[in-house]
Amino acid sequence: MEFHFNFREIATATMVLFAVIDILGSIPIIIGLRKKVGHIQSEKASIVSAVIMVAFLFVGEEILKLIGIDVYSFAVAGAFIIFFLAIEMILGISLYREEEAESASIVPIAFPLIAGAGTLTAILSLRAEYHVENIIVAIIANTIFVYLVLKSSKRIEKVLGKNGLSVIRKVFGVILLAIAVKLFATNINQLF
């Protein structure tokens, strides 16, 4: 088995995934979840999201084909999820309701916040252009960064304060809304 490690491919894939995962933009959501459930299992969330991303890299398209969903439908569904997350952030309302949990790790942090529809769609797009090993390195790099952000969310909250978090939440909500609209617009035409 021959490896094709390429720094340019790794850097590009890392930046694409970093932008799509947008863990910095998710800090207000993470802090809100931590207040609701009390504790975020950073290690578990990071490992599970990495496993989901790597697994989807290898079998994602086949799984979608198996259940009769094309990548474009998946991306449009992802756009709706991102849209509603953005609306929550901008308007300060809560659309996502879940039964009380003791901690947050797999749902909703590992999936859909980190390894959500947008991330998984990006992974399928990268697979078409880059070697698998370079994408895996990019996934690992992003997982490490995600872990560091999850682990230091309390410190980040203290530094930013309540007003800083509110401003960041609204700004990133608008950015997330724009990503949702772009994801929807690029993929809706392919469905018809």
TrEMBL record:
Q: What is its main location?
A: membrane
- List all membrane-crossing ranges: 12-33, 45-68, 74-96, 103-124, 130-150, 171-188
Tell me which GO cellular component terms the UniProt record holds. Answer: plasma membrane
Q: Membrane topology for this entry?
A: Multi-pass membrane protein
Question: Keyword set for this entry?
Answer: Cell membrane, Membrane, Transmembrane, Transmembrane helix
Q: Which InterPro entries does the protein's record reference?
A: Multi_antbiot-R_MarC (IPR002771)
PANTHER family noted in UniProt: UPF0056 MEMBRANE PROTEIN YHCE
Question: Which protein, by its recorded name, is this?
Answer: UPF0056 membrane protein
Which organism's genome codes for this protein? Pricia antarctica
Q: Lineage from the top down?
A: Bacteria, Pseudomonadati, Bacteroidota, Flavobacteriia, Flavobacteriales
